[in-house]
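ARCHIVE RECORD
Type: protein–small molecule complex
Small molecule: 2'-monophosphoadenosine-5'-diphosphate
Source of inputs: curated submission
Record status: active
Notes field left blank by submitter.
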Amino acid sequence: MLHPGQTAINAATRLCAIFGSPVRHSASPAMHNAAFAELGLNWRYVACEVRPENLREALAGARAMGLAGLNLTVPHKLLAVPLMDELHETAKFWGSVNTIRFEGRKPGGPWLPLAEFDREPPAETRSHGFNTDAEGLSISLSEDLGVELPGAKVLLLGAGGAGRTAALKLAESQVAELFLVNRTASKTEEIAAEIRQRWPRVKVVVGYPRGRVNLVVNATSLGLKPEDPSPLDEKAFPLTQAEAVYDMVYKPAETKLLAAAKAADCRTASGLGMLVWQGAVAFMIWTGKQPPVAIMRNAAEHSVYAR
Ligand code: ATR
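STRUCTURE (tokenized, with ligand):
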């Protein structure tokens, strides 16, 4: 999509990119290019199909070419951790990297975003890895669903990469009780053990809750394909027992889980907000500017649903 206010590409254009495999359906280029145009920044964002075996070289190339920043998606988020020159506390905390800022410094000077070296390239450069997924989820739960996490009872479905990050973020946000359900039970046991050690005040239960919960979160990939069953076993936990349901799947906009939740009078939200907010936080990390979130959301919606 062409944006009003977009500057022409020239020799001073700053570049950001997303590396992934597959990456063709990413909404991030649409979202970030709309945001750059809105702020009149001479920046562009592209998607690069990078295979895991080429990640190290691709990261070194991006740094050498002076890119301002990167996003990483499947399957790079964990692989990138040992490849970073510096890890922000968010990347250490969640154990994965979805946002990289390239930084530079003059001899003896402080590390600054590479984007600040307009006239003279810095003597030294480095990659700085962040994670904005967990923050994206918690802002979206609050903004899109009005959920107050401290003291809440939450049922979390899924214990893959996204499920683990969600579980740790919910525990860090001081939920009172966390119920973990996953097809492969050993993964929920591992996450439960980690939470009991790191946040002993959170009551973690492996399995479905008996009574009411404030929130159900789907962090499995079930729902992406039309033939997928719902990730929730409604015999084990009827949705009438939930106040709000969040589905990290955002395409289709209404999954079977969300349709059933609406029918049960729950408040509902798809994962589009999480996508937008993880991008908005990344935008701030690269540019140092307030992200135009409404513009980003519009662009993401258009990119995801209009094709
Ligand atoms: P992501 O990074 O998106 O979390 P992932 O790590 O591959 O991707 O995790 C996918 C999640 O969806 C897991 O919780 C997975 O369950 P398993 O741990 O048992 O594999 C869940 N999932 C995927 N397909 C599923 C299916 N057909 N039935 C139930 N759960 C499924």
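CURATOR ANNOTATION: The first strand starts at residue 14 and ends at 20.
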